[in-house]
C-alpha cells in the first residue's frame, strides 16, 4: 500500500480559493498603500475587465492570442510526443535528442525572437514558433523519461511475441507513458502560455493579450495594465483545468480503473 498522502477534490478546490483570496488581498493592500495612478484597486480593475470583455477589440485580441497558442502548442505536442516515442525504440536517437534539449532549453525561448524576426519578418509566425520552442522541451522530455521507466519485462515479452517497433510504440510504450505524457503536456502549456505573452509584448504585432498589456504600459494606463494581467492570470488556469486537467482525469481513470 502506498504511503503517499492524497488530497481530495474538495481540499484542492478550497486550496485554490484560498490562494486566490490571498493574492487579491495582497493586491488590495498594495492599492491601499500606493497612489491610485500606480496601483488601482481590485474593484476598479474587475469593472474595467467586464467592460473590455464586451468590446470587439478585446475579443479580437483574445481570439488572435488563442489561435497562436493553439498552433504553437499543437505543433510542440506533435513533435515532442513523436520524438519522445521514437527515442523509446531508438536509443542513440534518444541520447542525441536529450543532449540537444539539455543544451537548448537553457536558452529562454524569448531569446529566439530577434533571429525569427529577421528570418520570418513581423507577423504571427515568429510568435507561433517561439511558443512551439517553449512547449517542445517539456513535452519531449516527459515522454522520454517515462519510456525509460517502462518495465523491461513488458518490453522483452513483446519482443518475444514478435512485436514490431510500431507495435512496441503503440501497445507497450504509449499506454505506459500516458499519465506522464499528460503531465508533460501541462508543463508544456505553462511554458507555451508565458512564451506567447512575452513574444506578443516584444514583437508588438497585430492584436493579442501581450500586445494589449505592452500598449497599456507604454501609455501609462495602470488600470489597463492590471486588467490585462488579470485576464492573463484567469485564462491560463481556466484552460489548464477545463481541458488538460479533465483530460488527465479521463486518462488516469482509463489506466487504473
Give the overall silhouette: globular
Number of domains: 1
How large a portion of the residues is in β-strands, by DSSP E? under 5%
**CATH-defined topology:** MetI-like fold
Rg, alpha carbons: 22 Å
**Low-pLDDT segments, ≥5 res:** none
Distance between the termini: 17 Å
Order of helices and strands: HHHHHHHHHH
Helix count, per DSSP? 10
Rounded mean pLDDT score: 81
Q: How many β-strand stretches? A: 0
CATH superfamily, please?
A: MetI-like
Derived structural class: mainly alpha
By CATH reckoning, the class would read Mainly Alpha
Précis, in short:
The protein is mainly alpha-helical and 257 residues long. The chain contains 10 helices and no strands. The longest helix has 39 residues, at 165-203.
Overview of the structural elements:
- The protein has 257 residues and is mainly alpha-helical.
- The protein has a single domain, classed as MetI-like fold (Orthogonal Bundle), CATH 1.10.3720.10.
- The protein is built from 10 helices and no strands.
- α7 crosses α8.
- The relative contact order is 0.12.
- The mean pLDDT is 81.
- Belongs to the binding-protein-dependent transport system permease family.
- One of its GO terms (biological process) is transmembrane transport.
- It is a multi-pass membrane protein.
